[in-house]
Fold these 3 entries.
Entry 1:
Amino acid sequence: MSTVTVVPESAIREIVTRENAYEAVKKAFEAIAEDRAEVFPVTFGTGLAPQDVFGVKAGADSAGATVGLKIGSYWPDNGQHDLPAHGSTIILLDPDTGFPMAILGAAYLNGFRTAAANAIAVDYLARKDASVLGVIGAGHQAEHEIRAVAAVRALSRIRIHTRSTGRAEWMARQLDDIDIPFEFTSAQQAVEGADIIATVTPSTQPIVRSEWVAAGAHVCAMGADSKGKQELDTDLVARARWFADLPAQSVAIGEFQHAFAAGIIPSADTICPLGRVTRQPDLGRRDDEEITVFDSSGIAIQDLSVARAMLELARERGLGSTVEL
């Protein structure tokens, strides 16, 4: 028999913060960069209907004594059941026995984890005086990205591009409490003159053109997480220095897959893991003129590190419940 702690999303909402997500993800990046953690090939599947899809990301972190997996699902018709289309569940295994020790409802947590990754990249790679943020996309994750970046840089203006009037109206309501001027623009207007650019879309065609991006900009590309997805044109990648959460994955299913296929990026070894930069900041931005691109394709160790931190907090505060398997 094994005892499993169940931490529901309601409890996660009480304990997760930008700060504790940032620290947990930073530890995950460093564990990967120092070869103290391992991620396994991502598995994709479908439900009973072909439009219902899910992915499984798994990993093991010897530094954090953490083993487990995340199941991310997309069931587009969930609205008829009053459920969100996107679901996320993390299962932590007891590293000594392999039996489940915790199950966490992670949809809300996933937004903080993903945004924390890009906040770390901005913190270590964007110019210190970067103040104009250009965002491509206006979904739930875009809101998380804006708030996370605003926590690490003093933003003076935010420009957001979306093709949907409905999404623009929704985003305007969500950002009503932010004391930073924001506007909705074309993709070109969002990018031109921006010091920080975040792309948060499921696009399979380049949206950000190289000629729009000024010298000295930092780009966080986080939409590409499977074969065929692309948000940046390869000319932009060719102008930039390359960073990633996991270089080998970035050239396989991340934003860098296209530049790699075109021979612009000769090998994954030429991409710097972000965790190496957090340990040695001199490996990051070299001057105020270079363009830096961080490819955030998402890795299981990020999920597991954040989940472990949330599990410890939940236990400290008496949140969640336990069941016997």
Note: The domain at 3-109+301-320 is CATH 3.30.1780.10 (ornithine cyclodeaminase, domain 1).
Entry 2:
Amino acid sequence: MPANAPDLEATADALRVTIARLARRVRNEGGMQEFTPSQTAVVRLLSETDGGGATIAELARLENVRPQSMSATVAELRDAGIVDRRPDPTDGRAQLVFLTDAAQSAIQRARANKTGWFLNAMRERLSPAEQRTLAEAAQLFDRLLAP
């Protein structure tokens, strides 16, 4: 390893810990109730449908779980007022699961809260040069996540 090369193992470990702490902080800043990982996945998938909804079978396929498991997750979200169901306009036998208007509003508020916290923290705690470094780091993280 060259003399000025970073210790990649130490860097990977430090980033893992820091990113986990950052993710927890951002989640807390959202101000929404905590969901289980499977509930979070359903809410994320439904928020990407632009209000069009999805069937339980589609959600189960996308999350690689059994339809019965997805039904249980959707039932919990429905009991909490996060999702509801309506008939599929193209298949009268099927039901579409969709985010309620209240849930969509809450999600938008939570995202704005998270972004606002991030924006304020960067403005208050980082110099302009550090802000540019963070912008570059965001692009590097995207590259690390690319397939």
Note: Helices lie at 8-30, 37-47, 56-63, 67-79, 101-125, 128-145.
Entry 3:
Amino acid sequence: MLTAAGDDELDPVVGPEPPTEAATPRVLTIISHVMEKLVARNEWLAKQTKGFGKSLEAFHGVRAPSITIAKYLERIYKYTKCSPSCFVVGYVYIDRLAHKYPGSLVVSLSVHRLLVTCVMIASKILDDVHYNNEFYARVGGVSNADLNKMELELLFLLDFRVTVSFRVFESYCFHLEKEMLLNGDASSLKDSRPMQECLSPTSSLSTLYV
């Protein structure tokens, strides 16, 4: 189980088996790639500055888990069935934290716990039906008590600014698509038109979810 101590293995989730035919949305791959780059940069910065800011200490485990960010996000999506938009909004929360607390770095000790907390809160905001904290804790490999504490901590760190306007959501879609294009993944886009022409209130991430 991925506990606060950062154990290597995640326990199987007890509950309905998720559909095996569902493909992982491409947006998860993009976000995991962006987060991996962020963590790598922050680990280097942390070595240079000899420490971290204190704002994100509530999300630190004793050691980094062995599961990759990509596999961790896939696990959350597979078992919670939250909408792909939740991962984008969760990424918005992390970016807001980075701007509000620039001295507090998202590193390997905190990234997994931060991600599951952000996605869970986003699912409560966006999805009509969502699992409770206890289920998210089992999926994320943390204790329910820890997840409850991290949820409250995150809400206060964000000053309870957890709503995301369509304009902001759209801007992050552009950013994520740019990352995809910069990393040579343009072939994954079924529609070759510029994102400005493809976006609509009902298809904001249609090119990313494939």
Note: Residues 26-157 form a domain with the Cyclin A; domain 1 fold (CATH 1.10.472.10).
